[in-house]
Fold this protein.
Amino acid sequence: MTDHLNTLQGLCKKAGYKKKVAIALSGGIDSTASAILLIERGYQIIALFMRIHDASLNLPKHVKACFGPSEEKKIILVKKICKILDIPLYVIDLKKDFKEYVLSYFKKEYLKGRTPNPCIHCNAKIKFNLLVNKAKNLNIGFDLFATGHHAKIEKIGNRYVLKKAYDISKDQSYFLYALNQNQLSHTIFPAGEHKKKELKKIVASLDIGIEHIKESQDFISGSSYSLLFKDSNIQQGPIVNKNGDRLGTHKGIIYYTIGQRKGLGLFSSRPYYVIGINAEENKIIVGHKEDLLSNGLIAKEINFVGIDKIEKPMKAKVKIRQQHKESDAILYPIGNKIKVIFDTPQMAITPGQCAVFYKENMVLGGGIIESSIKGEKLCLL
C-alpha cells in the first residue's frame, strides 16, 4: 500500500470516521477489483458510472468504442456488480460534456493534421473533473475518488506525486500526467499496487466472469473514427514527396498519421511513410524511414506533476506515446514550453500526441507535442 493510502487510513482511524470513496466503475477487471480492495480496507464505497454514449451520433452497433452503443450492456453489468458488493450506484449523464470536450477536441485536432490523445484529455476534463463535480452537485457526498488505473500516488512533502504502477507492464501513468495537484490529492488508485493476475483472482470471487473481460475499450477501434466526421470535412488531396512532387492522391487527411506506411497506394522500390501533414494545403507528405527520425520536440500546454517547474536544463526520460519506450533526453525550458532533445534520434514524433517526462518511476510532467526537431544536437549538462 502506498504512503498516500496509509496516511488516509491513519486519518480515518484517528478521527474515528469511515471515509467514503466514490469509484468510477466501468464493469472491467481493474475498477471492479479496486472497489473490492477498498471495501476490504474498510472504506465506505459508492459507485459512479459515466454515461457518455450519445445516440445522436448514430454509431453502428458493431463499432467498438468507449462511448459506443454497448454502453447499456455495461450499465447492466455494473448494476449486477454493485448488487453483489451491496454498494449504491449513481449513473452520471456526461453525454453533452463528452461530446464538447472530447469528441469536438478530437475532430478539431485531426482536421488540423494532428493526432490527439483523447484518453488523456478525457481523464483531465471529464473523469477526474466533471464526473466528480457533477456527482457532488447532485448532493452525492464522498471524500475521495478512485479509479481502476494502474498508477500510484504518493505525498512527498507538500506535493502529490504520480508514480508508475507496481505492474509495470500495465502502467497507465502516461495517461494521467495532466492531472493537477487538487485532483491527485483526492484520488486513490488501488489497482496500482497489484499485478493484473492478482486483480483477476480478486474479481473471480464474484463468480460472474468479469476476469475474462478484455482490457478496457479503446476510444474507438481502427479507422472507425471517420464516422465522427461529416463528408464535407473529408476531402481528397495530393500526396507529395519532400520536394513537393506529386506522387498520388490521399482520401482525406483524417485517415493519416505520422509514421503510417499502409494505405498510401504508392508503389516504389522503397516503402514510403507519412512524414508530414499540411492541413492548410490538404497535403500528405511522404518520405522514407530515415526521414521519420527526429532529434527532439517542442511540447506545449505543460503540466508539471512531480516538480513545480523547470528553470534550467535537466535530464529525464521521455515517452512520446503510450507504447513507446522511454528515451534519455534533456529538457530545456523555453517560456511556457519545453524543448526536448534526445540522446538518440526518435522515430515518428507526432504533433498532437503527448510527451511525458519521467525521473525513474516518477512522472515529472508532460505536454502536447507541438512539433518535432531535426538536426539539433544534444548539449551536455
Notes: The chain has a mean pLDDT of 91.
